[in-house]
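hey so i finaly got around to running the thing on 18S rRNA (guanine-N(7))-methyltransferase from Xibalbanus tulumensis. pasting the sequence first so u can double check i didnt mess up the copy paste, my clipboard has been acting weird all day
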Amino acid sequence: HAVFSRMMEVQLQMTERAIELLALPEDTPVFLLDLGCGSGLSGETLEEQGHVWVGVDISTAMLDVAQEREVEGDLILGDLGQGVPFKAASFDGAVSISALQWLCNADKTSHHPAKRLYRFFSSLYACLSRGSRGVLQFYPENSHQVELITAQAMKAGFTGGIVVDYPNSTKAKKFFLVLMTGGSHALPKALGTEEEEAHVKYSERREKMKKI
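ok and heres what it spat out for the 3d tokens, dont ask me to read them lol
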């Protein structure tokens, strides 16, 4: 149970960070797409921040759990590698937590990871409104996967790239693919990249601990 709670907590933190990286207009509810939404944990975080969302997942079992939990988002059963089935410019942004790496696998002989990634990214590019972003957190197996994913996203029309939070920590290191649709912009700053910043956070935490 403790492990599950820890996983939920990590998922929550990653979703909050993904929303931050979307750089949405402040205090404005928007329409977001949750890719590989699973049981709706990330969707609930989107709800808490006042947004409306639609989730897509390949697992019927996970979507059943999401329905049991009565999440507010609309849920769609679908394989991201087949592309996402939405009208052009439907969404103001997209998030994905821990799902993208699965598209690098060839689970069937007919699966070509590069083609599946390209189909996914092309359809995602089409269904995002211009100027919006997609932020996809994933766990790459190796640098080849990072390159494969990034190359297919850029080929589909996106600009942007990878933001690695806490690059020097084995445990806290997180990969976020930040995709932009409205021309080239500077990538957001990664967390935990400067000694000083990490130190400030650590001393703040110590202060808090003292007060408890």
